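Backbone-to-sequence.
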């Protein structure tokens, strides 16, 4: 297992891990866990420190990204690595949005964040031209700023929200199989569906313009957010994910056990998982919450 991070915060406990699996010769998955702060450095004041905490205690956001690359020898690894690097640079460049994010600007912010996938695609196309190879990647990105979460997505990696033992898949699998199921042409249990389960109609890179899917939701204390590649969901079902995460005492233990379970089931693909447990923020006002989950396809 490689690339593990476990970072406790005021409101979040996050851990991510990625593993090559049992069958592949290269890990073409990558992930990112990052902290974004709206910070004021106080040089001198006669205001007590306790008031500083009240004024600035709810100013940290979290950025979670999972990318699962595809495209020939080393091409997929380059595509997913490019996605992680480009998303980090893009978010850094749009920090002015994070600094002024308010309920009135959420739609504009979401649109701007969706443009990140187009930026990643341009960079992948540039890299692909240099290396003369066709390559692409899934990208599932979540930005958490209590009590809001914005998810931007393309491909068949997933973002889940686990609340009161109910696992909700917030993103849609952008596969031909899911299209056939959604259209009613095939049932999920049909044997023929398996042939199309890993064929993507939408990804970042490839030969078509990416079509970002955006999801916005309101978080609650004790929620658990899970991002993962299909190396996890292709090996274990949702009920096992719930069992593992709810019986784990830490986010790090949950990610380790999820990957171990995927490998024990065959480990046919690279497997990546990021688990974020939501605590009870001390200084955040839940009155700013968004009331319901909203899904927008571009």
């Amino acid at each position: 297992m490689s690339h593990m991070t476990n970072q406790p915060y005021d409101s979040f406990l996050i851990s991510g891990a990625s593993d090559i699996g049992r069958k592949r010769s290269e890990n073409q998955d990558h992930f990112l866990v990052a902290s974004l702060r709206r910070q004021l450095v106080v040089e001198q004041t006669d205001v007590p420190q306790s008031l500083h905490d009240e004024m600035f205690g709810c100013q940290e956001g979290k950025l979670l990204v999972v990318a699962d690359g595809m495209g020939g020898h080393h091409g997929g690894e380059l595509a997913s690595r490019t996605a992680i690097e480009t998303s980090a640079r893009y978010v850094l460049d749009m920090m002015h949005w994070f600094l002024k994010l308010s309920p009135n600007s959420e739609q504009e912010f979401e649109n701007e964040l969706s443009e990140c996938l187009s930026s990643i695609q341009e960079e992948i196309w540039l890299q692909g031209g240099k290396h003369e190879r066709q390559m692409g990647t899934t990208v599932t990105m979540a930005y958490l700023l209590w009590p809001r979460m914005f998810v931007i997505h393309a491909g068949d990696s997933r973002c889940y929200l686990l609340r009161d033992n109910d696992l909700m898949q917030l993103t849609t699998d952008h596969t031909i199989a899911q299209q056939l199921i959604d259209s009613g042409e095939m049932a999920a249990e049909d044997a023929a569906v398996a042939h199309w389960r890993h064929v993507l109609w939408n990804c970042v890179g490839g030969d078509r313009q990416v079509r970002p899917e955006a999801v916005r939701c309101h978080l609650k204390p004790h929620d658990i957010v899970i991002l993962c590649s299909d190396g996890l969901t292709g090996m274990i079902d949702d009920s096992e994910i719930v069992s593992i995460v709810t019986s784990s005492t830490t986010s790090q233990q949950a990610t380790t056990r999820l990957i171990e379970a995927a490998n024990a089931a065959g480990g046919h693909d690279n497997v990546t998982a990021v688990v974020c447990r939501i605590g009870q923020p001390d200084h955040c006002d839940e009155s700013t919450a968004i009331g319901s989950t909203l899904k927008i396809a571009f």
